[in-house]
Specification:
It is a single chain. The protein is mainly α. It has nine helices and no strands. The mean pLDDT is about 90.
């Protein structure tokens, strides 16, 4: 039996959900406490009751946003076992962030990655970890396809992960910059052909 969340936990989740939207739009460095209090309807004290600092809230809001992304991927992958199809679903996950955004600002990993630098090593490390999680999904999917005899053995899984993620994230950046999904559509079409080329000839 699943226990219901306490009122405090519900408030905490609400703060995370609202803050994730704010950070996504204004950035982790561009967001002020006033922005957060306005979005959550709480005072600074109310927010600090649940989070020790703005930095702690930023980290947890980032994790919250990435969990939304992960949950959508799991939903899209449900029941799909074919490695090539799973890779296609993965790239279409990012198209969905434009067509049906989880957050107003787009991809949470891309947004955070463009901000982080030496001034916030904790956030930088967290973004690296989360990006590595996406890379590992692609790498393991390719490896599984090779083991099953569905994908070519001369393919390097790590390279596939780099090509797919760099291409799709770069296309999202361009689509946001120019307010034109044409760039993302081009990238998805190119990656679709690329994934087809990875299949082992029958």
């Amino acid at each position: 039996m699943q226990m219901s969340m306490s009122k405090g936990d519900q408030t905490r989740q609400s703060i995370l959900a609202q803050s994730a939207q704010v950070f996504s739009v204004h950035g982790y460095f561009g967001t002020s406490m006033e922005d957060l209090t306005r979005a959550t309807g709480l005072t600074k004290g109310g927010i600090y009751h649940h989070f020790g600092s703005k930095e702690e809230l930023a980290l947890e809001a980032f994790d919250f946003a990435v969990e939304l992304l992960t949950a959508r991927l799991k939903e899209m992958l449900h029941g799909t076992q074919d490695p090539a199809m799973r890779l296609l679903i993965f790239i279409n996950l990012f198209r969905s962030l434009i067509e049906d955004p989880l957050l107003k600002g787009g991809c949470p990993i891309l947004n955070a990655a463009t901000e982080v630098d030496d001034t916030n090593p904790t956030l930088c490390q967290r973004v690296q970890q989360r990006l590595m999680g996406l890379r590992e999904f692609v790498i393991q999917t390719v490896q599984r396809g090779q083991e099953q005899g569905n994908l070519r053995l001369d393919t390097t899984p790590d390279t596939v992960a780099t090509v797919i993620i760099a291409t799709v994230e770069g296309a999202i950046m361009m689509s946001k910059l120019y307010s034109d999904t044409h760039f993302l559509d081009q990238a998805v079409d190119h990656l679709t052909a690329y994934i087809e080329s990875l299949k082992k000839a029958a």
